[in-house]
Amino acid sequence: MSPVRSPEPLARVLPGVLVQFLDRASVAVACTRDRDLVPRIHYVSGWQLDADQKSIWCFIPKEFTPGLQESLDDNRRFALTVEHIGPHETYQFKGTGLSLRPATDHDAAVVARCRGRFASALIALQAKLAGKTAVLERYILDPAVAFRFAVREIYLQTPGPGAGTLLAKLEDTP
């Protein structure tokens, strides 16, 4: 049994091991869909677990906001896939949109920490990238919007035989 599998049929908050994962993960991408089920990819510059421990803030650059509001207005569905580069530890968090607002200085500080983790993960894989932190950090774009979604399901996506396994469901509470 996975150490992140929820001990109850419905958990109230994200399991602690996933909270820790979000603090060490290094890259993320999100997806929405429109009413015709056409997917939209939204590159995520940074993420942070909300104080409620059951919703996640995603910080999305302007270049990846087209279609975001329309998809959320239509169905509120949102999927965030987060990876720790190196060990390829990967999880997908699925849920429903709660709020969308312009990014703040606080959000930019969260993104700066994610940038650092991204660069460090790549340097750890390729020693020849040492000294290129600033170049690598430029791959992570500045956030334009902050989007918060309530996590409903968490799936293992680490490559291997367990990929796609539902690990936890969270209660559907506001």
SSE topology:
Layout: H1 16-24, E1 27-33, E2 39-44, E3 46-49, E4 55-60, H2 68-74, E5 77-84, E6 89-102, H3 105-125, H4 133-137, E7 145-156, E8 166-169
Antiparallel strand pairs: 1-2, 1-5, 3-4, 4-7, 5-6, 6-7, 7-8
How much helical structure, as a percent, in the residues?
A: 10-25%
The name of the CATH architecture is Roll
Estimated share of beta-strand residues = 35-45%
Indicate the radius of gyration in whole angstroms.
16 Å
What's the total count of β strands?
A: 8
Q: Tell me the number of structural domains.
A: 1
The CATH homologous superfamily name equals Electron Transport, Fmn-binding Protein, Chain A
Sheet of most strands:
8 strands, antiparallel
Quick one: CATH class? Answer: Mainly Beta
Number of H- or I-type helical stretches:
4
Shape: globular
Poorly predicted runs of 5 or more residues? none
- Helix and strand content put the structural class at alpha+beta
Mean pLDDT: 92
- Give the CA-CA distance, first to last residue: 29 Å
CATH topology: Pnp Oxidase, Chain A
- The run of helices and strands is HEEEEHEEHHEE
